[in-house]
Design a protein that fits this description.
heterodimer; A: mainly beta; six-stranded mixed β-sheet; B: 0% helix; 50% strand
């Protein structure tokens, strides 16, 4: 049973555009929702994280939107750049160890 | 502040062999978690160590075992290797009990079983 469902599987965005990746969960005991960025051959790097007591968190060009009632959260990358091309994973943690989505491969084209 | 390091970077083993992977935690962190990441998938939790004791385990067989040392470094041991064990093995360190829950990953060890 997949505890965190992530979509889309892949995404192509024009340079300067907005990249949006969505995740949904079922376990209401989750209380920490991080996003990780992974480049080929590297380990995942913590990008930004949110707790369910806030609906939005912004750090630079990266924003997490959180909808507790819908049990959904999303990552928005504003002004997407070619250097943002990577695989992005949403994750959740609470009464279970960190659980990851299957990842979204983002390609930002000039 | 030093980050999480792992060794070796790459490893090729034969089915049935045993392997040991190593991880050094980020400075100040006392908890280590190990993950298996198959190609094209998200990391899967194997187990976590805190104060040298296993502190949680995912759905992996007993031939996956680990150790944590007093300096918080850690080892992952896999016995009787199978072809499906081929993956990127990731170590993540964190500070147990910290409100933030942040886990920081190392670069991983790419294991190939032939």
């Amino acid at each position: 049973q997949q505890q965190v469902k992530q979509s889309p599987q892949s995404l192509i965005v024009q340079k300067g555009g907005i990249s949006i990746i969505n995740c949904a969960y079922e376990n209401t005991a989750f209380d920490y929702f991080p996003w990780y960025q992974q480049f080929p051959g590297k380990g995942p790097a913590l990008l930004i994280a949110i707790r369910p007591d806030v609906s939005e968190k912004k750090e630079g060009r990266f924003t997490i939107s959180f909808n507790k009632s819908a049990k959904q959260f999303s990552l928005h990358i504003m002004d997407s750049q070619p250097g943002d091309s990577a695989t992005y994973f949403c994750a959740a943690l609470g009464n279970t160890p960190l659980v990851f989505g299957k990842g979204t491969r983002l390609s930002v084209i000039a | 502040e030093t980050g999480v390091t792992q060794s070796p970077t790459h490893l090729i083993k034969t089915r049935g062999q045993q392997v040991t992977l190593r991880c050094s935690s980020q400075s100040g962190h006392n908890t280590v978690s190990w993950y298996q990441q198959a190609l094209g998938q998200g990391p899967q939790f194997i187990f976590q160590y805190y104060r040298e004791e296993e502190n949680g385990r995912g759905n992996f067989p007993p031939r996956f075992s680990g150790l944590q040392f007093p300096n918080y470094s850690s080892e992952l041991n896999v016995n009787a290797l199978e072809l499906d064990d081929s993956a990127l093995y990731l170590c993540a360190s964190s500070l147990q009990g910290r409100v933030g829950y942040e886990q920081y990953f190392g670069p991983g060890t790419r294991l190939t079983v032939t």
